[in-house]
Amino acid sequence: MSKLSLAEKVSYGAGDAAANLVWRGALAYMAVFYTDTFGLAPAAAAMLFLVVRLSDGITDIMMGMIADRTQTRMGKFRPWILWSAPLLGLFMVLCFTTPQLSDGGKLVYAYVTYIGLTLAYTMSNVPYSALMGVMTSDHNERTSLSGYRFAGAFIGGMFVMGFLPMLVNALGDGDSAQGYQYAMFFYAALLVLLMLVTVVFTKERVHSEVQLSGSLGTELKDLAKQLPWLILPLLAMTLFFYYRNLPSAVFFIMVFALLWWLIKRLKASPQENASRTQRDLLDLLDNKPWLILLGMGFLTMMFNGVKYAAVAYYFKYYVGNELLAGQYFIALLVVSVAGALLTPKFSALWGRKNLFIGILLCSSLLTGMMFWLPAEQTLLIFLTGCAAEFFAAMMPTLFFAMLGDAADYSEWRTGRRATGLVYSAGTFVQKTGGGFAGALVLLVLAWYGYDGLDKSTAQAAIPAMLLLMSWIPALFGVAGAALMWFYPLDEQTQSQITDELAQARAA
User: Are 242 and 43 in contact (CB under 8 A)?
Assistant: First the structure.
C-alpha cells in the first residue's frame, strides 16, 4: 500500500482547485449571468442546462474508456489533464462572453460554448478523478487524498464565487458583460497553472495486471451500438423533468421498463457472448455499492447545486445586497475547507457510511431552517448557511473516496478493473445533478413569473428564492440519507477487500 506525501496530496488538490474555478465557481453564476446579463429567458436557459447533460452522458463514459486504454510514459490519466487545460481555459472565457447577436444567435452561441466547456471539463475531470484511484491502493489514504482534493476544490471555488461580483464591478466599470469576460481571462490563466502543478507533482502507482482487450477503435464502435440505451434514459428524464405532463411520464416509464428488460436479458446470457463494453457496463450494473453511489452523487449534487445556483438571486432580491453573495460564498468555502480536511478524522471515528447519513440529515435540517430567516438578519443567515455547509462539504469528499472502493469491489468480484469507467460515471452523475439543479432553479423561478430583464417580476418570485435556499434542497438531502442506509460496504469489509487485492497483485 502506498502512503502519500503531504506535497503530493496538496499537488493533487491543486487540480480540483483549477477545475472548481469552473465547476463550483463560474457555474454558480452562470444562471444569473444568462438571465440578467446575456439576456436568455429562464425557461430557455433551463432547457440549455438539461440538453447539455445529454452530451455528458455519452462523453463521460467515452472518456472513461479512452483513459483506461491510454498508455504513455506519464501514465493513463495525467496526460489528459495536461492536454485539456488550455481548452478548458478557452471555453471558460467564451462562455462568459456576450456577443452582439440576435436573440436566436445568442441562444446558438450559448449552446455551442456551453457544450464546448462541458466537453473540455470531461477531458480533464474524468481522468483527474480516476487518478485518485491509482495514486494509492490504501482506502484510508484515498479518503485523506479526497479531503485534500476537496479542500482544493473549495479554495478554487472561493476565488471565483467570493470575488467574481467585485471583479465584474471593477473590470466592467458599469458594463457587466465586459466585467465577466475580463474576469474569466484571469481565472483561465490561473486554471492552467494549477493543472500543471497536478501533472508534474503526482504519480500513478496502482497498475492492474488484468489487461483490457481490443483496440480503442473497436471499443468505441462497440460503445456506439450501446448509445441508444445510454441516451434514451437521459432523454426520458430530461423531457419528464422539463414538461411534467402525461406524455412525458408515459415515455419515461416505457423507456425504463424497456431498459430493465434489456439488462435482465443481458445478465441471463452467457458472458462470452457479450462484448467488452457490455461486460464493463454489466459489471457496473451488478456492483451494488457503485449503483448506490451513483444515486448519492445525483442527490447530493442536487442538494448542493440548487442552493449554490439560488444564492445570487437570494441576496440580490430577497436580502437586497447583491455584493453580499460574494461574501457569503467566501464564508461557505472557508468552512468547507475545514469540513473537507476533517472528513478523514470523522470517518475513522464513525465509518464512512454512518458519517454520510449523519451529515446529510444535519445539513438538511439546517438548510430547511433558512426558510424562516428574515432578510435583515444577515449574521444569522451567514451562521446557519455556514453550519449547513460544514456538513455538506464532507459529501463530495466521501463520494469520490468511496468510488475508489467501488472500483476495488468490482475487481475483487470479477477480476476486471476499469477505474476510468467507474469514475467517469461518478463525474457524469455529479454533472447531471449540477445541470438538473441549475435547470430546477430556473424552472421554479419561471413558474413564479421571473424575467431577468424585467426587474419588476422579482418581487413575486421571492417565495421561490426562499424555497430554493431551504426546503427544496433539504428534500434531496433526506432522500440521500435514506438511500445511503442500503450501502453494503462497512469498514471491515472494505479492509478485507483491500488486503485480498493487495495479495493478488503481489502474487
Answer: no
Find out whether 57 and 232 touch, Cβ atoms under 8 Å. no
- Cell numbers 465557481 correspond to 25
CATH code, 313: 1.20.1250.20
Helices in 269-351 by DSSP H: which ranges? 276-285, 288-313, 324-350
Q: What pLDDT is recorded for position 211? A: 47
Residues whose CB falls within 8 Å of the CB of residue 434, separated by 6 or more in sequence, listed in order: 23, 27, 301, 305
Query: Does some domain include residue 1?
Result: no
Report if residue 413 sits inside a domain. yes
Q: How many domains does the chain have?
A: 1
Does any domain span residue 209?
A: no
Residues 6+ apart with CB under 8 A from 174: none
Does 245 fall in a domain?
Answer: yes
Structural domain for 337, as ranges: 6-204+216-506
What is the structure's pLDDT at 111?
Answer: 93
Rounded to whole angstroms, the Cα distance separating 430 from 237 reads 15
pLDDT band of residue 257 (cuts 50, 70, 90) is: confident
User: What pLDDT score was predicted for residue 198?
Assistant: 95
Give the per-residue pLDDT at 482: 95
Asked if residue 50 lies in contact with residue 43, where contact means CB atoms within 8 angstroms, the answer is no
